[in-house]
Fold these 3 entries.
Entry 1:
Amino acid sequence: MKTLPLLCLIAAVAAGCSSAPESSAVAAPAAPAAEAPAPKPGESRKVLSVHATDAEFLGVVKRPCMHRTALCPDRCDHGGSVAEFKILAYRSYEKTGEYGDPRATKFFVRVRDARGNPVADAALLRDIEALKAGDKVRLDWRHEYVTRGGSSFPERPVTTLKPESK
Ligand SMILES: [Zn+2]
C-alpha cells in the first residue's frame, strides 16, 4: 500500500514550503559594481582620478620629521616609513575630477608612523612588507577628495597591489 508514504511525502513538502523564508515583497536590488568607495557616515568622497599601473617596488624608506611646527617632533604626525614605487607604465588612467592627479612617475604609501605603528591597512602592509626591492607589481590606486568633520583632505587608497606573474 503506497498511499500512506505518499501522503507523508506531501505533508513533508508542505511543511518544507511553510518553513521556507518568506519572499520579501520588495526585493533588495543587487548592489551595483562599486567603483567609488562607500562613504562612511558623516563623510563624503569624490574620486578625482583613477590610476592602474605596472610599477617597480623600490623599497621602504624612513622619512624624518622636519621639525617645522610647534608640535614637532613629539606631538606631530610627521615622519615614518614610506614604501616607494616607480611607475613603469600605465594600464589605464582616468581623470574624473578637475583636480585629479595627473599620471604619476612615482607613488608612495605611508606604511608606519614615526613610532613604528602601522598606518596602512593591515593586508596592504603585509603585501608591501613581503616585497623585495626590484619586484615588479601591478599597482592601482584612486585619488580621492574626502570631506569629514568639516575638514577636507586627499586620500590615495591602493586598490590593487600584487606581484606581476613572472
Ligand atoms: Zn613634525
Entry 2:
Amino acid sequence: MLMELTARQKRYRRYREHLLADPEMHENNLKIRHALYKKHKEEYRRKQREYSQRLRDEAIVKLGGKCAKCGITDIRVLQIDHINGGGERERTKGRRYQGILLDIRDKSEEYIKQHYQLLCANCNWIKRYERGEHNQF
Ligand SMILES: [Zn+2]
C-alpha cells in the first residue's frame, strides 16, 4: 500500500533533490551537520532516546498494555513480540526494532493485531523455549 507523503517528507524530498543537483553544497551541508552534531551530541542523543522511549510507550498502549498470555501490566517487563516469528532476529537489530515501532504507530489496528502482541519477558522466554529457540546453556 502506497502511503501519502507527509508535508515533512515532501519537504525533505525537495531538499534532497536540491542537494544532489549541487554536490559541493551537499558536501558543505554534511560538514555543517557533522559539526552541529558534535557540538550538540548529548542533546541529540537525549532527544533520540526520548523519541524511542515515546515510540515504545505508544506502541505498548496501542497493543493493549498487558502480556497477551498472563496479563501482567508492568511496563518494565513487557516486550513487543512478532507473532509470526522472527522477533528475536528483528529485536536484536536496533534499526529494525525502531522500524517495528513505526509500523505499530502507522499501520491499521487490524494489521497490528495480526502481526504483533505484547508478551512479558517470562512468557516470551517460554514461547521461545517451546519453539526450540532458547539458548543451549
Ligand atoms: Zn506474561
Entry 3:
Amino acid sequence: MGDPACWLDRVCLECGRFIDDEHASDDECPHCGAELDVSGKPGR
Ligand SMILES: [Zn+2]
C-alpha cells in the first residue's frame, strides 16, 4: 500500500478501470471484456 505502481497492472488498459482482486487473475476485464495482459506484466 503506497506504491501507486503496484496496482497499475490491475487497471484495464482499455477502459482504465480498476480490476478487483477477485478478477485480477481473469483473462478479460470484468468491465469492458478487453483481454488483460496478465502474463506480459512489465515487472522489474
Ligand atoms: Zn476494461
